[in-house]
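Example 554, ligand S-adenosyl-L-homocysteine.
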Amino acid sequence: MSNKKPQFSKKTLQLAQKYAKQLSQKDVIELKSDDDNDIKSDDEELNIKDDQNEQNSGQQEDEQFEEQQGEDEENNVDEEDENDEDQDDEQNEEDDEQNGDQEEENQDEQEIVEQKEEPKKQKKIKIQQQVEEEQEQEDEQNELESYQEEEQQNDQLFETDLNAIMNRINKIIEILKQKEYGKFSREELLNELKKHLCTYYGYNSDLMSHFTSMFKPAELVAFLDANDAPRPITIRVNTLRTRRKELAQTLVQRGVNLDSVGDWTKVGLVIYESKVPIGATPEYLSGHYMLQSASSFLPVLALAPQMNERILDMAAAPGGKTTYIAQLMKNSGVIFANDTSKDREKALFYNLQRMGVTNCIVTNYDGRKFPKVMKNFDRVLLDAPCTGLGIISKDPSIKAQKQMRDILKHSHLQKELILSAIDCCKKGGIIVYSTCSVSVHENEVVLQYALNNRHVKLIDTGLEVGNPGLLKFDDKKFHPSMNLARRIYPHVHNMDGFFYAKLKKINHGPIKEEVKSEVQKPVVMTKKMKKKEKQMEKLRLGEARKQQQQQQQQ
Ligand code: SAH
């Protein structure tokens, strides 16, 4: 279909309009808008034929008329058209100018309106900003409140969780006591208990395993509880400077509430309450007392230094025990206060001066090498470096940090140091070994090592304070005299955990291998050894039965 619109003469259009009245509105529209090809009715076809006839005759008339008019007419039409166009342009320009002026006017008016409305707008913006700021503040406040609420809920949950854990701990302890394990084995229950104890008290599992092998469950909980509670502050009166009664009176006057530590010491005072800092009173600064845990008095009392003796304090810094030894010796004789740490020796010097100790020589050797420096001491104190498992209440970081490997590392150094301490002592002299650890590896195991390797024996400390040393631990068995050693537990004695033992040197030198195997029966029985022994026993029994049967047959 062609896009070109059909060209109709005036007549044809008049006819078309005449017939269009007979057509529907829709058809007329179609006729106006489109080619006549789509007209379908017979009448319409006929009309169109008429139209064509008329159109043809009309065309002929038009042609004749056009010929008469000639070319001039055509030119006139062109000129008229041009004139019309010029007029149109002028009119348009005028219109444009008018429109431009109108637009400018409109713009000016708009600007004036805008200028008038500007302060209003700014006011509106300000209010909007204020509202937004207030909304932000409100949001922040709400956020903070919901965060605090959440924290509170977490704390409550944590608390209820801890309570739930403690309930489970108590339940397991009860089950283990009654030995009715139900569907779980004892080992499974112990493992669960260990896990809960680590969570509740904040220990690493390695250290907790060590403690679970040392204590029965109920005692373990008591020990762990005690480690979370502070021990009472105690001081030792320096009798080189004052007397206990005098000092007690002065301190009471300063607002200190105190009492004696116990019957076993004449120099200990326990501080319940104080209005003044105990480590900064004039009496403290002038050396009338030492801030010292009560259990630290014990190894010095066990050492029992005598007037005019030669004493070695092998690991002395910061001098808590050295100053006590000096006081018991009334500054007579001589004390060699040794320590491997130069830094810690500064505190040792300060304490010796403050406390008025005048019989002390400070040395800085590795204790393991001291026998090469000096020997033949009347008494030697080895207050050995240790893991500090007895003073967890003073240093809670131990719970997370110390592991079995630290215990074994210390045990190794302690074994070397104890042999060295024995070697520094005269024949018949006294050696006191102590640590602020409750671990077996740092105490009984070290002493057993000394018994196995040097001519020493354990003797009574002369003190009642403390539980006896252990005779066995895991698959280890210790010498029966180990019960003369003393263990201090925080949950039993309300003092820092501690260990001390007194040895007497019988002879010089190491124990020879052949003598060692005769004198020192195997005290450490490993699981492997036990298993082998059982197997041998079975074999022996089997052979004995066979022989019996053979004899009966004969
Ligand atoms: N007896 C002191 C505390 C001693 S703590 C008092 O009552 O105040 C253990 C000390 O052992 C630490 O001062 C440490 O520096 C020291 N030490 C560690 N290894 C040593 C070694 N090989 N020889 C000597 N001293 C050592």
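Summary: The first strand starts at residue 233 and ends at 237.
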